């Protein structure tokens, strides 16, 4: 995964801890929504889990004073940024996040389907990932704890 990162894909953003907290909260809500629909709509469950990871990554990016430029490929930019910031320690989860990105594209833009096991694993992974990001933001920033 990304050992280097192209910061030209980002734009500067003033750090706003309220915005970061709201974004993390939305990520947790997406994980919960993913759990709720898991038994009835595996595609939606998977997409909600993936969106939770996107929101958490956006919070991480905002905590560093950046946001992605609005352009084709901005989801890949978010995934690569998380890999760059989290490093080798979390290489497995960021690789899974990238795989989820590719699968989500096939589900949304093609005819791929998500199995119940895939959706369940995605939901679990998303919950773990949001926790990792929340902890990383708190570790890196001497601010009041998020949530």
Automatic annotation (TrEMBL):
Name of the protein this chain belongs to: HEPN domain-containing protein
